[in-house]
Design goal:
The complex is a heterodimer of chains A (about 110) and B (about 260). Chain A has helices spanning about 5-10, 15-20, 25-30, 50-60, 60-65, 80-105. Chain A has about 110 residues and is mainly alpha-helical. Chain B has a 4-stranded antiparallel β-sheet with strand order 2-3-1-4, with helices on both faces. In chain B, strands 6-7-5-8 form a 4-stranded antiparallel β-sheet. Chain B has 2 domains: about 5-120, no CATH class; about 120-250, no CATH class. In chain B, about 45% of the residues lie in helices and about 25% in strands. In chain B, a hairpin with a 2-residue loop joins strand 2 (about 30-35) and strand 3 (about 40-45). Classes of the chains: A mainly alpha (about 110), B alpha+beta (about 260).
């Protein structure tokens, strides 16, 4: 008997596996799991938290983020369509404030300071 | 070759076939060091680039780290094709083959036990996210233009924000409960399971909060059942992501290491 999962993997073209395996998942496993043995060469592995921060910094470069499979903002309605709603809302609020302020000035000099 | 170090990827049975890996870290060829009933899957690597100082620096270079992690992972996956494998953590480096052989001898019983635990089994990863619901999008679309929007924009904005927050809270609670229920079902199908911290949205690639991040060790039958169960839950309150099959990274620990 072959082990089911891995033999399916073998049947799949290697590019496919590469693509479908996202870097965060790989890092989570090779850095955070697996057997820990003290080798002859001593290094301190960055913990996953630190790595997350590094990746966050890296996201400043959008192309790189896309390359490593991070593209959620492209599907994020608040960053695409939602942004426009917000702009309209801000405009409306500004007009409202202007209207209120001009009304107030017409009546009296404002509340005492 | 005198200046080479030995990079260790994984430990396997000695009688497993040579892993058909294209090339390991730093594009180094992959070979095996056999000792008794065990074999270490290794590469000879440059002593300068993989020396303590350079290696420490490289690990903090995300580009380097990505290449190394992918290469390490590919070699482990190739080794897993031909039998049980105990993956070793990234950046485990020895002076020479003799040290690796000594390690295999010294911890032989532990490695045997670790390999026996994962023999004929693979690891699947399941991640669950709170699924955005249909009425969320409907409400969000209706609110800005509805009714007195132009008359009292400030109030309607705040009300809308509060409603959104309330909805998100309720949704998260429901998703968390659904994730716990799913985890119990998956646990019944698995030989062993491990739960991990939810990934940061910027890492997971999902905007929705992660409510389950777990690994399950399954045999062939369990693996089929697990995939089926995940597939049948695709339309529920959870958005599910299945990864694998993985070499058993999460389950190959040595006893009291």
């Amino acid at each position: 008997m072959t082990s089911g999962g891995l033999s399916t993997n073998r049947a799949r073209p290697p590019e496919h596996r590469q693509e479908s395996t996202n870097l965060a998942d790989i890092l989570e496993r090779v850095l955070d799991k697996g057997i820990v043995i003290a080798g002859d060469i001593r290094v301190n592995l960055l913990d996953i938290e630190l790595l997350t921060i590094k990746i966050r910094l890296l996201i400043a470069s959008v192309d790189k983020a896309r390359e490593i499979g991070i593209d959620w903002w492209e599907h994020d309605p608040t960053l695409s369509i939602g942004q426009r709603d917000l702009a309209e809302e801000n405009k409306a609020l500004r007009q409202r404030i202007a209207a209120l302020e001009s009304g107030r000035n017409g009546n009296e000099g404002g509340a005492d300071g | 070759m005198a200046d080479a170090l030995v990079y260790l990827y994984a430990v396997t049975d000695a009688d497993a076939a040579e892993p058909a890996a294209p090339g390991g870290v730093d594009d180094a060829p992959v070979r095996r060091v056999v000792a008794g009933a065990l074999a270490a899957v290794v590469s000879s690597v440059d002593a300068v680039r993989f020396g303590e100082e350079a290696l420490q620096r490289s690990l903090e270079d995300l580009q380097w780290l990505e290449r190394a992690a992918r290469a390490h992972h590919e070699v482990v996956a190739a080794a897993a094709e031909s039998g049980p494998v105990a993956p070793v953590r990234l950046a485990t480096v020895y002076h020479d083959d003799q040290s690796v052989r000594a390690l295999l001898h010294e911890r032989a019983a532990d490695f045997r036990a670790a390999l026996d635990r994962v023999r004929g089994r693979v690891e699947w990863g399941v991640k669950a996210f709170a699924a955005p619901t249909a009425d969320d999008t409907a409400d969000a679309g209706a609110a800005p233009g509805s009714g007195d929007g132009s008359a009292r924009p400030g109030t309607s904005y705040l009300l809308r924000r509060r409603a959104e927050r309330d909805r998100a809270g309720t949704r998260l609670e429901a998703a968390t409960a659904a994730a716990e229920a799913l985890h119990r079902e998956l646990t019944d199908l698995a030989v062993a399971n491990r739960r991990y911290e939810p990934q940061d949205p910027r890492l997971s690639g999902h905007r929705e909060p992660m409510v389950l991040n777990a690994a399950y060790l399954v045999d062939e039958v369990g693996g089929d059942a697990l995939r089926e169960l995940v597939a049948t839950r695709a339309d529920g309150p959870l958005q599910l992501e299945l990864t694998g099959p993985w070499a058993p990274y999460s389950f190959a620990a040595l006893e009291d290491s």
